[in-house]
Amino acid sequence: MFFGSITLLLSIAIVVLAIIAKIGWVKSVSVFFLAFLTVGSFFTLYTIAKTKEGESHYGLRSILFGQSREHMQDQDQQEIVSVDCRQRDYSKVSRDARFYVVRIDDVQDDYYYKIVQQMIYDSSTLGIKTVVGVIPEKVTRNSPVSNLLNKNKCAFEMAQHGLDHDRVTRNGQEFAEFEILEYEEAYQRLLQGKNILSDIYAVDVSTFIPPENLLSEEATRALEDFSFKHISSNAGSHFDSGPTVYEYHTKKIFDPEQVLSGCEDEWSEKNLCVITIHPQDFTKLGGAIDVNLYVKYFRNLLVALQRVPNAYPITFDDYSKIYNY
After folding, report:
1. pLDDT tens, per residue, the chain with 325 residues
2. Is 236 helix (H, G, I), strand (E, B) or coil?
3. What is the rounded CA–CA span in Å between residue 184 and residue 85?
4. What sign does the CA torsion over 285, 290, 293, 298 have?
5. How many CB atoms lie within 10 A of CB 155?
6. pTM for this prediction
7. Which residues touch 227 (CB under 8 Å, ≥6 apart)?
8. How far does Cα 163 stand from its chain's mean position?
9. Cα–Cα distance between 238 and 233 in angstroms, integer?
10. In whole angstroms, what separates CA 229 from the centre of its chain?
11. Computed from CA positions of residues 248, 254, 258, 261, in that sequence, does the dihedral angle turn out positive or negative?
C-alpha cells in the first residue's frame, strides 16, 4: 500500500513537470486551476448524492439545507449558532398586521429530543422565535434537552407545560392534569413546576400551558393569583390555542394550507393565531422520526407562514409588551 502510494505520487509529479515543460508556467496554472474546479464540482455532487441516499432518521439537516453530517446539529452540547439574539423591532410593523405564535408542547428529557433540536434550529434559521412548553418534572439538569435549551435561550420563549403532564383518574374516569384540580392542589403544582424550571434554566416563566389545554375553574383562579402573566389553553383567553398540526382525538394531521386556513379564522376574530405543535407529530407509529413527515408538515409550514402577507412571528411576552396584555 505504501509503495503504491509513492508510485502514484511520483507518476503525478512526472506528468505535472512534463506539462509545465511543454506549455510553460502561466498556461500550466490555468490548466491545473480548471482541473481543480472540475474535480471539486464532481466531488461535491457525489457527496450530496451519497448524503441523501444514506440519510438516517436523525439526519434531517442535510436534507433541508444540503449540509454535511459534520455541520448537523447532532451533538448534544452543540450550540445553535444561527440564532439572532437581538430583540425583534416591531415598531415599524403596520397596525393592521397579523401575528402568529409557533407553540411547541411536550418538551422533555429523552422524548424525541432530536426533533425538538431540529425544530428550534429550523425556526430560528427562518427568523421565527418559538414558544417551548417544557414539562417540569420530566426534565433534569445537564440532560441533552436541558443543555440545548440553556445554550439557546435566544431562540425561544419558555413556557411551563403542566407539572408532570400525567392524566389523573377520579371515580374511574380519566382527566387531563389540571382539568379537575381544586385551588390548593393546582397552586402547589404551579409553584413546584415553576421552581423546577427556575432552578434548571434560571428563567422566570410567564406563560402556562395546561396539558391538553384543559383547566378547571379553580386551577384558573390559582393561575390568576400566581405570577403567571399568560395562559395559553382553550379557556377563552386571548392566547388560546388555535389550529394544530395533529389532532389527537381524530388522529388527523393537517397540512400547511389547512393550518393557515385555521389562522385565517383566528385572524378574523383577533390579530393573533397560536399554532400548537408537538415533536411526536412527526414520527412513525413505532416512534422513529419520519423525515418526510417533518419536512412536509413542519418545515413547509414555517415557509408558508413566512409567505403570508403582513403576518409576523411573535411570542406571548413580546405580544404583551406591544398590546399591554
Report:
1. 444 555 555 556 555 555 556 666 555 555 555 555 444 444 443 443 443 333 333 334 333 433 333 333 444 445 665 556 667 889 889 999 999 999 999 999 977 888 999 999 999 999 999 999 999 999 999 999 999 999 999 899 999 999 999 998 888 899 999 999 999 999 999 999 999 999 999 999 999 999 999 999 999 999 988 889 999 998 788 999 999 999 988 999 999 999 999 999 999 999 999 999 999 999 888 878 899 999 999 999 999 999 999 999 999 999 999 998 7
2. coil
3. 38
4. positive
5. 24
6. 0.76
7. 194, 204, 206
8. 22
9. 9
10. 24
11. positive
Residue with cell 433534569: 140
Alpha-helix runs per DSSP H in the chain: 2-23, 25-53, 60-65, 113-125, 144-151, 183-201, 217-225, 256-269, 291-294, 300-306, 316-323
Angle in degrees, CA 95, 101, 102, rounded to 5: 150
Give the residue among 139, 145, 144, 120 at the shortest CA–CA distance from 130: 120
Using CA atoms of 78, 82, 83, 88 in order, give the dihedral in degrees to the nearest 10. 180
Identity (one letter) of the amino acid at 245? V
The grid coordinates listed for 222 are 390559582
Q: What is the CATH number of domain 97-323?
A: 3.20.20.370
User: Could you state, in order of their start, the residue ranges of all structural domains in the chain?
Assistant: 2-54, 97-323
Q: Kindly report the CA angle at 89 between 87 and 95, in degrees rounded to 5?
A: 145
Dihedral pair phi/psi, residue 294, rounded to 5°:
-60, -50
Q: Which residue has the cell 422565535?
A: 129
Question: Collapsing DSSP states into helix, strand and coil, what is residue 157?
Answer: strand
The single residue listed with the C-alpha cell 448534544 is 76
> Sign of torsion, CA 279 284 288 294?
negative
Nearest 5°: the CA angle 237, 309, 258 is: 60
- CB-based contacts of 63, cutoff 8 Å, min separation 6: 52, 55, 291, 295
Which residue has 385572524 as its cell numbers?
A: 267
